[in-house]
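Before relying on records like the one below, remember that each one covers exactly one chain. Contacts with other chains, cofactors or solvent are not represented anywhere in the record.
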Amino acid sequence: MYILGFLRSNGNDVHLVDSLYEARTEALSFGRWKVRKSKLQKPEVYANIPRHYCRFGLPQEELEARLSELPKPDYILVTSAMTYWYGGVFETIKSARKIFPGATIILGGAYAILCPDHASKSGADLVQSEPLDTGFQLRRPAIDMYDNPGYGVVMTSYGCPMSCQYCASKKLFPNFRKRPIEDVIEDVRFQLSVCNTGNIAFYDDALLIDKRGSFYPLCEGLIKEFPRLKLHTPNGLHVSQIDEECAEMLFRTGFHTLRLSLEGIDSYTGAVSGEKTGKSGYERTIKALKCAGYPDERLETYILVGLPGQNTDDILSSIDYVKSLGGKPKITEFSPIPGTKMFERALGDCPQLAEEPLLHNNTIYAPWVSRSVPPETMQYFKDRAKIYLINDKIPCGS
């Protein structure tokens, strides 16, 4: 959306087709939606996996009808996200080529960067396989091209200064960059002017880094100009950065959905997670957030499951530890991502990962492909995390 905004501001005529957005069905909380899906024949690599294989978004014939409504383009930009969604990317490019045979098709995004050789088979004329560390400022995303997206999306920074062994942030954004606060405020202001929403999601990987220099001033600006917004942090917050002052700022600014990146309390998971925090740091954070006014059910905490070499007893200990403090565990299934240290370790479990991105799927790799977490154990972890306990083990003032 930033690229579309940049192109439009330089005199180009741009159009947007979002096959997921245009296939919305049931409304969910905070402006989110469920999306239509269609069952497809499973690829051979999934033949023995007892799960359905589906296409989410517009069916191919509806996508082609939608494309046919548009004027003939010179260029078609196709973006990509998860590597294991490449089937949808290939079909989209095929449809675009069918409707507009003379246009130049450019494929970019995460899949194109992480799997450039595989993406070269997509049918695109050009694969943008290098990160767009641009020399110009992308100041305003073209969010107004959606009729009513339901919620806004903001990034105050790109990349992350940490080096977690399972994360591709540094490959996608080699340089950690903070946006000017005034640009972020303007971004929020613009999105609220064109969207009927009271919800903004921050997609930063490192929102709280340099909190005094950037995050706190941003919060003060948001409080002053947008006092009734509900703010959300789906990407996870660095637990080590949340003390009493930070917790109070989060609550006062209107951060409603908190996702805390604990990952695990054992030494192995801590080491591959860049030692984000330990037990004492997490306890301090939970106490601070409770004192600031957050109820237990909003203290959602990511527990990473399915890492190569991870001990199942350690996973259970992490789940029970979070619950014992009143936190709400959220199981996050490991996905092997090309270019990361953990991907190289995962190749030992499944050499096919190097050639077949469908096996990167986090719901497939850990329970069905790797040797460490069988399907029944993965489900047990999820069930155990859902047994929620309200516990005031570390109340305010203790």
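The domain at 146-398 is CATH 3.20.20.70 (TIM Barrel).
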